[in-house]
Write a structure and sequence with these properties.
The chain has helices at residues 35-47, 100-104, 118-121, 124-138, 140-164, 174-208, 210-213, 234-244, 246-252, 273-276, 279-301, 318-330, 347-350, and strands at residues 2-10, 13-19, 24-28, 67-74, 77-84, 90-93, 96-97, 109-112, 219-224, 263-268, 271-272, 306-310, 335-339, 353-357. It is an alpha/beta fold. The longest helix has 35 residues, at 174-208. 39% of the residues are buried.
Length: 358
């Protein structure tokens, strides 16, 4: 549980130090004042990354500054994350240098923001980033395996190019391929298990919010593996893919199959929200996913993840604001919610929340 945050030179937030309520926190500030940046600073402190797609880390540093710094105090300890222009993120936990994987063993946050709709409407790499961060927060070994996989993937791609250029032998590719298949299977197995459980939670959330969603709506979360959806056949089928398409991979100098190509979809009445959903339906789909992630996180680890909610209420009518507020009230979730207008927040939500002005 987050208890305090100190921010220095993070985007337009020059200096900010705030206590955080153990249940609800409502950030009230005008547009362009730094509400989203405030949430992003928390995300950065845990994941050492930007909340927004295609964002350079240098852009996180405030104008006129060379270094930005975020210190968060949790029940689990004190996390300090800093970044200097054109360098790497430095992380300390309880005054000792550490790495991202170690942070993910202790801390997590789940985010709903305006650009979160891209999880549904955008390209697969956006969905993979979101689900990889999520699974890593529950199973730190997943992050370690994924890091190893990415290294072997990079080396295999380089080796394919060397073969194409006549600088390596095709037979020597087996070492990289076999390791990629073994690591890929471990990642696929974990994703397979998580998506099966998440879909159950996803359906339960849609039932809990059936009034918000309109009765009769049928929502489903589906994992879309690149090569095979069977645990028993995964390795054999992936190896066969590589063997059958080795010449094609050599020509393009790139690995064409594996978990780096996986995707998932959210469907309403058996229709993909990516292709057939309105903008409003896509936002609802992401919100359901985030609530499902919160539920699965708690049921798995017996503790809650921090929920960061950016500008949700502005696009809802009063009735639906009440539905969402009641859901937050009825579930033991620590959240930070931003708004430009205080009247958009139902009064009931203030009974458990602290109002924050930035």
């Amino acid at each position: 549980m987050l208890k305090h945050i100190t921010i220095k030179n993070f985007r337009n937030l020059k200096l900010l130090s705030l206590d955080i309520n153990k249940r609800g926190n409502i950030v009230i500030a005008s547009n362009s004042s730094g509400k989203t940046n405030f949430l992003e600073s928390i995300y950065f402190s845990i994941y050492s990354d930007s909340l927004r797609e295609s964002m350079s880390m240098n852009e996180l540093v405030g104008d006129g500054s060379e270094v930005m710094y975020v210190k968060t105090i949790w029940d689990e300890g004190i996390l300090e994350s800093s970044f200097k222009l054109d360098t790497k993120v430095l992380i300390k936990f309880n005054d000792k240098s550490t790495i991202k994987r170690k942070v993910l063993e202790k801390l997590s946050c789940i985010v709903f923001a305006p650009n979160s709709v891209n999880i549904v409407s955008g390209e697969p790499d956006i969905r993979r980033k979101d689900i990889n961060n999520y699974i890593s927060s529950i199973y730190p070994d997943y992050y370690k395996t994924l890091s190893s996989y990415n290294k072997f993937l990079k080396n295999r791609n380089s080796f394919l190019k060397m073969i194409r250029d006549g600088k390596a032998n095709k037979s020597d590719l087996d070492y990289w391929t076999n390791n990629l298949v073994d690591l890929g299977f471990d990642i696929f197995k974990r994703r397979y298990e998580v998506f099966n459980s998440l879909n159950i939670e996803f359906k339960e959330v849609s039932k809990d919010l059936k009034s918000f969603l309109s009765n009769g709506s049928s929502w489903e979360l589906k994992y879309l593996p690149n090569t095979c959806n069977s645990l028993e056949e995964y390795k054999v089928k992936l190896l066969n893919k590589f063997r059958e398409n080795i010449e094609k991979e050599i020509i393009v100098g790139k690995t064409l199959y594996g978990i780096q190509k996986d995707d998932y979809t959210i469907e309403l009445e058996n229709k993909s929200m990516r292709f057939f959903g309105s903008r409003g339906q896509q936002r609802i789909a992401v919100l359901l996913l985030k609530f499902a992630q919160l539920r699965f996180f708690k049921s798995t680890l017996d503790r809650s993840s921090l929920f960061l909610i950016d500008d949700l209420m502005s696009e809802l009518d009063n009735t639906n604001r009440e539905y969402i507020s009641n859901y937050l009230l009825d579930n033991d979730i620590q959240f930070i919610l931003t708004t430009a207008e205080e009247f958009e927040i139902p009064k009931s939500l203030f009974t458990i929340s602290t109002a924050i002005n930035i």
